[in-house]
What we know:
The complex is a heterodimer.
Chain A: E1 2-7, E2 17-23, E3 30-31, E4 36-41, E5 46-50, E6 55-60, E7 67-69, E8 73-79, H1 117-126, H2 144-152, H3 155-159, H4 190-205, E9 208-216, H5 218-231, H6 240-254, E10 260-263, E11 268-271, E12 277-282, E13 287-288, E14 291-292, H7 300-316, E15 329-332, E16 352-356, E17 360-366, E18 369-383, H8 389-404
Parallel strand pairs in A: 12-15, 15-16
Antiparallel strand pairs in A: 1-8, 2-4, 2-7, 3-6, 4-5, 6-8, 9-18, 10-11, 12-13, 12-14, 16-18, 17-18
Helix pairs in contact in A: 1-2, 6-7, 6-8
Chain B: H1 2-5, E1 20-27, H2 33-42, E2 47-51, H3 60-65, H4 67-85, H5 100-124, E3 128-131, E4 133-138, E5 141-145, E6 155-164, E7 168-170, E8 183-184, H6 186-189, E9 198-202, H7 206-217, E10 221-225, H8 237-249, E11 253-255, E12 258-263, E13 267-272, E14 275-280, E15 283-286, E16 290-292, E17 319-321, E18 324-326, H9 337-351, E19 365-367, E20 373-377, H10 380-385, E21 390-396, H11 401-405, E22 412-418, E23 424-430, H12 434-446, H13 451-455, H14 466-475
Parallel strand pairs in B: 1-2, 1-6, 2-3, 6-18, 8-15, 9-10, 9-15, 10-11
Antiparallel strand pairs in B: 4-5, 5-6, 7-16, 12-13, 13-14, 17-18, 19-20, 20-23, 21-22, 22-23
Amino acid sequence: MSELDFKMPDVGEGLNEAEIVEWLVEVGDSVTEDQAVVVVQTDKAVVDIPSPADGVVVGHGAPVGDIVLIGATLFRLEVVGTAPDPSDHARSTPADTPAGAAVVPQQLAPARPKASPATRKRALELGVLLAGVTGSGPGGRIMTADIEASASASASASAAMIAPANGPTAPVGAKVTVPSGHDRVEPLRGTRRQIARAMTESWRTVPHVTELREIDAVELVRAQRSLRAHLEPDGVRLTFLPLFIKATVAALKAHPSFNASLDFDNELITYRSRYNIGIAMSSDEGLVVPVIHDADLKSLVDLARELDALTVAARNRSLTLDQMSGGTFTISNYGSYGTWMGTPIIRPPEAAIAGFGRVRDAVVAIDGRAVVRTVLPLAVSADHRLNDGHHLGAFVSALAHFLSDPVLLISGSNS
Amino acid sequence: MVAKIFRVAGISMVVGEIAVSADLMIVGGGPGGYAAALRGAQLGRNVILVDRDGEDGVGGVCLRVGCIPSKALIEVADHIHRTRSLGHAGIRTGDITLELGAWQQWKTRLVDGLTAGVSQLLRAAGVSVIAGQAQLSRPDQLVVNDPTNPLAPAQYFQFTDLVLATGSRPAALAALPRDGVLILDSTDALALQEIPRAVAVVGGGYIGLEIGTALAKLGAKVTIVEFCDRVLPAMDKAFARPVTRRLRQLGINLVVNATAQHFDGMNLHVAQSGSMVAIEVDKVIVAVGRSPNTEHLGLDTAGAVIDERGLVNVAGDRRATPHIAAIGDIVTGPALAHKATAEAEVAVEALCGQRAEFNPATIPAVVFCDPEVATAGYTADDAGAAGIDVDAVTLALVASGRAATMAARDGFLQLVWERNTTTVVGVHIVGPHASELIGQGVLAIEMAATLEDIAGSIYAHPTLSEQLGEAARLALGRPVHVPGRHR
Lengths: 415, 487
């Protein structure tokens, strides 16, 4: 028997942390190899983490609701029989300390957070990971108050803190200010937290420029109706969205700087060869953006079916990491909520995002006469570092061109 | 949770294998074990401490035959030596000698006093202390035998939690088996009733240096035999230099790159670069490190793992299994009393269900040689090897006015900091009272102090502690007492 520290694995896409959603195996219970031990949520997906070996779980690295950094201890396992290859999983045991270190003082970890022993102890008590706390003290030093602020945000999660298998429950000293009245305070967790972080990141780093336009949608509505009637017997439910995707891909082909990504740190612009269109969808937890890969190679029927499948997966929270990754451009179909116009927020490193409002009848002036026409409100936000107003205008014009005359979409041409 | 119902108030002898329920048991009464017992009592646990020597064993090697007695010897040796060597400062003396028998009595009184103090603390905390050799008979059961009386029945304890703090013993050399008369270990050396005329110390690590230096100051002709190419081989080379100079000034014969082979009662035969050297000595002291006491604990029955060095594998909270923790010399890290004491707190808190982790920024190491060596955190070389970008300055002791009044010239203070943030990651001191001065270095490292924090603190004048501030100013390019143009 030997014990190993199972570290939070890198579940892909350069993610550096994950949130504990549920412990499937309690401390003291045995597991078999590949049995799921814990459910974690990353920026992209909810993932089951399996046990690396047969054994007994002797400790949880963090309680439900805590954020665990990649490489930090996720759980401790007492392994039955031969231990798995230590190269796969970092050993907890100190056996690999170099011999001859007897008189040498214990080494500091390279990127040790700047915090005093008292602050570190408080962090341990409150289950706060120092590495995830921004210090407010001199020179970025993490103060005890920073730890308590971080913990009070997750007060209810702390209350459910996991005690080791034996002994009394860990004292939880989190001081939570109980608000008066009927306010409810809850920790920012799960998908909401991911969204909050992603939006903050985007809004902080990307200078948005947004163009708003109403497009004549008479032909679009006609096309959608006749396609829907045509495909209905095959069990395909054709909405506007596949047509939006087709038009968007056509416009992107004409304006590659909108199917691009900017690496500002390295000062590189990448023009993407694939057309992977993210579709903003609402789920019970919040916004998710599954991606239709290679939308340019797919038929309207393919797109309709894939959209249905992704909608179901989003609702069931069963979207895979793959289905959530690799987007090059995003569409938000907020018209389905009744929205007229919006100003969508870009998903970095993508260069732009299109928002489609509700199709409606409006009085418009044509040749000096008030005429009732069906219109589609369209908004496109672009990263102004990559595209200027006139680029954006040209892209939106191309999009409008295909949307107002959708028959062009079958031309195969890009303009 | 049987222990919750059947708490033992005292200890009753149990016949056969009927186990007494015990809550928290500690094996070993040294600086790790007694600190663990006291912490357990503070946390409301019912604590039983088992030591091989019972009440007489509390304090452990450190208090009884290690740190404390050796410092008592070094202290008097220093006094005598300094008094003799301050003739140029006007001190006139006759012949000063140490009556070692009288010193032994004084040492015994002071050790007994301190041991009694620890016993009193344990009693006041309600800790039961029992004598015997403890071994795991089951993962949750400890059997305690009286090694001095094979007829006495064994006692069985059914424990909830267990802390192992069994410490270490002087490592033996097969070529020089201890007889306690001619071939001594460090414990025997501290029990000498007379200063030997000529003595060889095998091992130039901190224990050998401390004993060798003290005996030389007390008049013995000392030879230090070291396997490596210098004394203090585990430490940075720079630390060994002033120490080596002083050893030579004290007339100590340093035999390095050498292996002691055999002692015939007259001569210690040493192999050195292919040839044999005979060193005429009365006694040989073997001080080649320490071995962990883990062989007879029965740890395998509990599923704990002991590595090839005899150390118990433990997690960050010092638990080897959910209910058994191990601390001190029997786990990884330096075999130092203060490390064991610090681990005791962590281990007991973890066993009491608290979140705990042994994660110090540094564990200081101190050598009470002459001059004293004290080190905390990274040296520039260690940091480089660990991939940390650091810078370092070394301030010579001659810059200190206080050192001059102590007639101390040989030594330095080295400050190591992380280049980007100027956070101090290492403080290394060679010189008088380095063992005391290192405390402020430890504090600086633990608090993640920057160079400006240290330079911006005011140190009393004239003291040796001013060196730290001056080193920080030197690092920042604005020293007061170092000549030359700076940043």
